[in-house]
Amino acid sequence: MTTTSHADLRNTRLTFGGILRSEIIKLWTLRSTFWCCVIVILLTIGVGLLLSTIQRPGATTPNLSYAEQQAMAVLYATGGTGIGQLVFSVLGVLVISGEYGTGMIRATFAADPKRLGTMFGKAIVLGVTTFVVALIAVFGTVAVCFPLMHVKGVYPDLGNSKVLLSLFGAAAYLAVISLIAFSIGAIIRSTAAGIATAIGLVLVVPAILGIVAATTGATWAYNIIAFLPTNAGAKVYDYNSSAPSGIDGVISLDAYTGGLVLLGWFVVLFVVSLVLVKRRDA
Fold this sequence. Notes:
Distance between the termini: 37 Å
Structural class: mainly alpha
Shape: globular
Low-confidence stretches: 1-9
Number of strands: 0
Order of helices and strands: HHHHHHHHHHHHH
Largest sheet: none
Helix content: over 70%
């Protein structure tokens, strides 16, 4: 008959490194993860290629300034971000809601009764994964599209720090959007409702408020739009993010304040999700 010492029991405790490894395995065994990442990369490059080959800035503005050329180059490289945010919103919700749907979350929380380690592990793995994939997509677009811009009078300068910050900012934006969607999924715990809410936040709400602002000219509508995740986050990868709005009474965010607002959305939603995960039954 064998006995188990206290030291053996301590050695079998779940560590945060073990949680991370577990979450990496769970994330990449989902077919949706692979296809979401492939779709983001292909569509980002595809949109950039479409913009760089169809638009002809040189035809109407043959003497673009250096700043205008860099702004145009960043616009081409990050043009697929709008589609990428929708795909990563779906993935972010699925990472957590899928476990609730299958009941696997009970086994996960049984292994980690405190639950917070699991939530942080999921968020870290998701955030790093989406950031790396978004970075591949953005710089893949740069590699394919930037050489094509020369014939149109646009000469991108990757030595320009603002250009590089915009490119990395686009990847960071998509990663945070996925984490916001993850937090929403943890709060709602339903795949369909979570995806609808996440996409509504990044797509539907800005569109509705944009219509209200355009038709009424209401300052409050413009100011709410400025603090939504998509609009605040867009400042992170906008080459001209410091430009004023041009409308009296309307708040203008720059790259830094826009980034803080975007992070604020994630932090608030993530904290709410942590509280609910701790309080509710699996």
